[in-house]
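Methods — Computational structure assignment.
A single polypeptide chain was analysed. Its primary sequence is given first, followed by the predicted tertiary structure written as structure tokens.
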Amino acid sequence: MRRFPVAAKTLRDYRAAFISIAFVLFAIALLDLLIYPSYKDSLEDFELPAGFEGFIGESPLSSPEGFIAAEFFAWIPLLLIVVAVIAGTGIIAGEEAAGTMDLLLAQPVSRRRLLLERFGGAALGLLAAALAGLPGFALGMLLVDFDLGFGRIIAATVNMVPVTLLFLAFSIWMSSALANRTQASIVSIGLVVAAYFLNLIGASADVLEWPRKLSPFYWADGSRVLVDGFDYARAGGLLAVAALFVLLALRSFEQRDIASSAGEWRLSSLLLRFVRRTREEAHTEPPAHPAEY
């Protein structure tokens, strides 16, 4: 990583988040496979409410595909996306609020290379975290009978990466375009929540059948991959949108005035300003007589 010092810095800055989420994925993958034999028979007659196709797909919950889709691939991408938003919003606005952006820009690297390396470092960390679930699945398959090809699990795991990179790129764009990290986080998390529930509710509401296709989660359906295999067209489309967001982030960062950008919003700083202003007004004595005005 000596040739890419900014990318290495990104990995160092967020290593705790990447390592933590990687451990969580490994543990949950192993635990899901270990508990599957205990729940398999009880799930045979279990009927899911209408509309849960957007959550676990159309496979029966008692099948290996349906169980692992519901217990892992339906919500684990959200954990990766949360980490992506944390890293993405901190790449520009976070560094600026911390007062370290000037130091980065003082290095012999262009703004374009700085942003691309930051994106690359975060993407590499998220990829490593996403793949951390595979050893857990492999170990679980050695300990219990789980009738699902490991290749399908690899495909579903890799399938989580494009949608994660899409939201990473979007949050970097917001970090470059908006005034501070708070605004970038609100918009990024708002988009994640809206897109997730649009896909979930759209599976049961006919009126949302077409709008549902606007959600990235619709195109990143892990349950479909577990049954039909990896869909290169869907993954490629998500990566293309991610690339578009990176280009928009580059443009916004090139035009961003670092010196005049707003600082991070903090309630404590507002309260401190209010207290200081109140004290100043209290120590200002009014004139003794109107004639002195």
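Note: The chain has 14 helices and no strands.
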